[in-house]
Design brief:
The protein is an alpha/beta fold. Helices cover about 35% and strands about 30% of the residues. The chain has twelve helices and 14 strands. The strands form three sheets. It has a six-stranded mixed sheet with strand order 6-7-8-3-9-10, sandwiched between helices. A hairpin with a 2-residue loop joins strand 4 and strand 5. Helix 4 runs antiparallel to helix 5. The longest helix is centred in the middle third of the chain and has 18 residues. The chain is elongated. The C terminus is likely disordered.
Amino acid sequence: MIWVSNASKKFSDINALNNVSINIEEGKVFGLIGTNGAGKSTLLRLIAGVLSLDDGVIEVDGEPIFENEKMKRNIFFMSDDHYYLPGSTPKEMAGFYKNMYHNFNMEQFKKLLDTFMLSDSRKINTFSKGMKKQLLVALGLSSMAKYLLCDETFDGLDPIVRQATKSLFIAQMEERNLTPVIASHNLRELEDICDDIGMLHHGGIVLNDSLDDMKLKLCKIQCVFRNADDLAKLKERIKVLNETGRGSLFTLTVRGTFDECKDIIKEMQPIFFEALPLSLEEIYISETEVIGYDIRSKIL
């Protein structure tokens, strides 16, 4: 387990993280989402032991991670701007990482290169962005590290490779209890793979819960009211986080389950109402608007 308690980090006068507390359970996919500059990359670097905390505690399997060489072998950090040795080839980078990760599986690395159709002798500086990301996935999985920290790892991968990468993650989770932690702006990419979600905003945690529980705590309702003031009356009794309207048809994202809301709506005798599925992207938009992050109101 990765345990983060009241973690804080400043860069000059910028609060990158402010009293962040999350638990990342073993054998699950943890998705880290947040607004631009929310502190996702900083948090991953702290968990990887690349940066030191200003305050708080981060432990991996019960041990502090910073300057702990033994525990760092359990973590592979896949940064968005990953560094490769100048003029190196995939084969040479595999040898480099084998010196740090004693269980590095060279046979698996070769198989993954074949899967991604990458040459082990071609210079990495001639690779495209997507090819470099594929190589990083191959190195990370072959390191046999218990925790894989992925910072925008799917960015730059084509749809087929993205799905292949997810399948590889799931396979290794089943084989050796791999725990991926994935930070991404692409919420749709996370929705079909993540078990738990942590949402950051301005350096603080907004939500930390299972994806299923998040969806249970919010619901989306589509309805047509009989009277013009019925929506205002409904909002006095139900917490409406987001609303859109097209003619007489309203779509509402509300706090609470559909079962909790439907009796109140029925009392108003609407012409029509039904529950709709709620996506991670809609949860994200609703929760960030509640805390005052609504850039749409400034540009529309």
